[in-house]
Every structure is written in structure tokens, then in C-alpha cells.
Amino acid sequence: AQSVTQPDIHITVSEGASLELRCNYSYGATPYLFWYVQSPGQGLQLLLKYFSGDTLVQGIKGFEAEFKRSQSSFNLRKPSVHWSDAAEYFCAVGAGEYGNKLVFGAGTILRVKS
Amino acid sequence: ETGVTQSPTHLIKTRGQQVTLRCSSQSGHNTVSWYQQALGQGPQFIFQYYREEENGRGNFPPRFSGLQFPNYSSELNVNALELDDSALYLCASSLVAGANNEQFFGPGTRLTVL
Fold first, then answer.
1. What is the pLDDT of residues A2-16, one digit of tens each?
2. Which of B45, B49, B88, B101 to mutate to test the interface with A (most CBs of A within 10 A)?
3. Is the separation of the CB atoms in B44 and B35 below 8 Å?
4. DSSP string, A8-69
5. Which member of B41, B100, B106 has the closest CB to residue A106?
6. What is the per-residue pLDDT across A41-62, written as a single tens digit (0 to 9) for each?
7. Residue A44 and residue B4: Cβ atoms within 8 Å?
8. CB A57 within 8 A of CB A112
9. CA of residue B68 relative to chain centroid, distance
10. How far is residue A107's CA from residue A4's CA, in Å, rounded to a whole number?
């Protein structure tokens, strides 16, 4: 069965510092991979997605992620964090016949200190 | 363009009662998926509806049921509520039933079961 592991429950970074959020997945075939962000009281917003092709994916708000098949990883990065990036981040893999049933990790809460 | 909306925002029920949650999909979207997000966890896939037919179901008991209407809005019904049903229920809509289509999430309905 498909699964997603986000090893870090909480991460605190200083404003302006770089960020990397880790995500490992378990999936038999080429996965569909996603990163979502959730602010308090808000729904999930898609940051970026990987389906095929270039393994470095650019997303919104200056985020990027790199798909590494050999490591079963899809880590999210941002070179310089802003205070408004404080939120919870979820990695997900697309499961099911068409890959459109999302299996989410437990999430990583990002805190940004000024 | 109106995004995904959900009602009600919050709901309090007692154990054994029944509840209906509603979702209006984004204009033009024909697929609706429902997820349950317990406190401190990632969302879990409940089921998906495509053009009024169920199109996949997660590991949830039959007391979780749903409907999709001709205008592609949807309902999630939960019978015989249990304390563990307390969670944020998220609805997501997309254009077609496939992974290569972004799912747009609503803000969720917070259900508390006492």
C-alpha cells in the first residue's frame, strides 16, 4: 500500500534562512507527488506537483521540490523563508487506479522566528 | 470564479446521531473527493464521486456515505456518530477523475462529537 512519511513533526527556522522539509514515500510505480500547505482555519493549497519529467519542480511562493527515485524522497525547499510561510506542510502521493486519491503524510509544522 | 465551499463551518453532535456535511465544487469541476483530518494528522481519503457515481473509497466503514448531485455538489453523511469521528472534514473538487488535475480544497467542516 502507498504511504508517506514526514519525519519532522516541527521545524523552526529563522526568517531569511533556507528551508528543507523531508518527505519519503512508498509506492510501486512512478508516483504522482504533491506538496500542500495548510494555514490555520484554511483548506489545503497546492504548492507544487510532480508527475514525470524534470525531477526538480518549481512551485508557487518560491518553493521547489526534488524527486529522487533512488531515495524514494520528494523534499520541499525554499532558499529564504518569510514569516508568512509559517504553516503546516503536507506531502502526498496519488494512489488508486488514476492516482487521484491522495495519501498524505502526517505533516510538518513550520515555525518562523524573527 | 467561486472556489470550493463547505457548510457548515462547525458542527457539534452527540454520539449515535447522524450528520450531513455539504460541499459545493468549483465551477466546472465534475469530481469531488472527501477527506477526514483528525487532530494532528494528515487528511485521510474517504471516497470520491465522479459524475454522480462513487469512484473509489478509502478504509472507512459503510456508515460513511455520500452523494453527488447533477450540479456536482456533494454531501457526506455519517450515521451512528462515534467520538473518533471528531475531525476536520475536507472536500476537494477537480475537473476530471485523474491525478493530472489539481484538486482544490475547501476550508473544511469541523465536526465535534460529544
1. 899 999 999 999 999
2. B45
3. yes
4. -SEEEEETTS-EEE--EEE-SSSPPEEEEEE-TT--EEEEEEE-SS-SEEE-GGG-EEEEEG
5. B41
6. 778 999 999 988 889 999 999 9
7. no
8. no
9. 11
10. 10
